[in-house]
């Protein structure tokens, strides 16, 4: 049987770093530390368990001011291991025109399959009319969108949940 993880985290240091203060809170929530792996270790695990992965990029630069685990990074990881990895792009909808330009770059130059959004972590509501131009651009490209919904450990145990609001799910 073929196994495809449609929502897979790179779990490298860059991925962990992009989540800034959430890392410590998640370790407490999970009851274990979040250990970074090298790219080679991540790929070796995929191969060992015969998993094809769709890696997720993540950009929280406007919400928690961390460097993103950006589209170029995730696409590069895919390109080095394209036999088992594909990649979702990430956009910060609050960046307006910059997000639209990045959407075009991700699809037209990086050949990503579509976009992943995490409304809770990005502190957005996807029905916000300010984001309609971005949604229209993505729709015009004919690519899929994956939106995380439901409960999350993000913000657990943090004052005010660090701005996390489940209504955004």
UniProtKB/TrEMBL annotation:
Coiled-coil portions: none
Pfam family membership, one: Amidohydro_2
Gene3D superfamilies the record matches: Metal-dependent hydrolases
Keyword presence, Ubl conjugation: no
Entry-linked InterPro entries: ACMSD (IPR032465), Amidohydro-rel (IPR006680), Metal_Hydrolase (IPR032466)
Domain Amidohydrolase-related: 64-156
rRNA-binding as UniProt keyword: no
Sorted UniProt keywords: Lyase
A GO molecular function held by the record: carboxy-lyase activity
UniProt-recorded name of the protein: Amidohydrolase-related domain-containing protein
The species this protein was found in: marine metagenome
Lineage of producing organism: unclassified sequences, metagenomes, ecological metagenomes
